[in-house]
Design a protein that fits this description.
The protein has helices at residues 2-25, 49-73, 77-82, 84-109, 116-137, 155-176, 186-214, and strands spanning 32-37, 43-48. With 215 residues, it is mainly alpha-helical. A hairpin with a 5-residue loop joins β1 and β2 (43-48). It is globular and about 70 Å long. It starts with a helix and ends with a helix.
């Protein structure tokens, strides 16, 4: 997976190259940049031009360093190595997602107008779909995956919970795509399924653990 690691480093470099270019050569960008949109798709937050251009690249870099650091300190790091290639792909896709959101933000501040939710929906949908793949492949560890007291206490409960959890994340991804058609309801299409899945997984892992204890 060396090619993935090279691609990840390229994205980080590209992020900062874009930020520096826009900061130096694009005086038409406003000094107070739009940075947040409410449920109705209206801008309800602004930050300075410097932070508007550099906050997301710095955040992406911080997340990247965190993702690299996590496998090194996990007591079950040997388990992470069993699905490391899938985790590396997740890092790559996560940074692509960040870059996509960054470019949408820059485009808006250049004067382009669009339904932010409509363009965010497919990106979040694809990310959820891949999370479904990653979750299904994970082995018990302390940082990556569905970590409840019961999944962390049993490899069997972990595997069963992540098998069904992977399917549920894929379903959430497909539901998120509906935001392209119904952008005004995208937040509900995102939060309601997420809440249901979280509660289901919590109870499912508990029940599977209780069942295992009785055997």
């Amino acid at each position: 997976m060396k090619i993935i690691k090279i691609a990840i480093l390229f994205i980080i470099f590209f992020f900062f190259a874009l930020a520096i270019y826009f900061f130096i050569f694009c005086p038409q960008l406003p000094e107070r940049m739009a940075s947040h949109w409410n449920v109705a798709g209206e801008v309800d937050g602004h930050i300075s031009k410097f932070w508007g251009l550099f906050l997301m690249p710095l955040t992406a870099l911080g997340c990247f360093l965190l993702f690299i650091f996590i496998p090194k300190i996990d007591p079950l790091k040997k388990n992470i190595e069993k699905f490391r290639k899938f985790f590396d792909i997740f890092i790559f896709l996560f940074l692509i997602y960040f870059l996509y959101v960054y470019l949408l933000t820059i485009a808006w501040n250049f004067g382009f107008r669009f339904k932010m939710a409509r363009l965010m929906a497919p990106a979040i949908g694809f990310l959820f779909l891949y999370c479904g793949i990653l979750i299904k492949k994970t082995k018990r560890n302390w940082f990556i995956g569905i970590r409840t007291p019961w999944t962390l206490s049993s490899d069997n409960v972990w595997d069963k919970t992540h098998k069904i959890g992977g399917k549920l994340f894929k379903i959430m991804g497909m539901i998120s795509f509906l935001g392209v058609i119904f952008p005004d309801y995208f937040l509900w299409l995102l939060l309601v399924p997420m809440g249901i899945v979280v509660l289901f997984i919590l109870f499912y892992s508990y029940l599977e653990y209780q069942k295992e204890m009785k055997e």
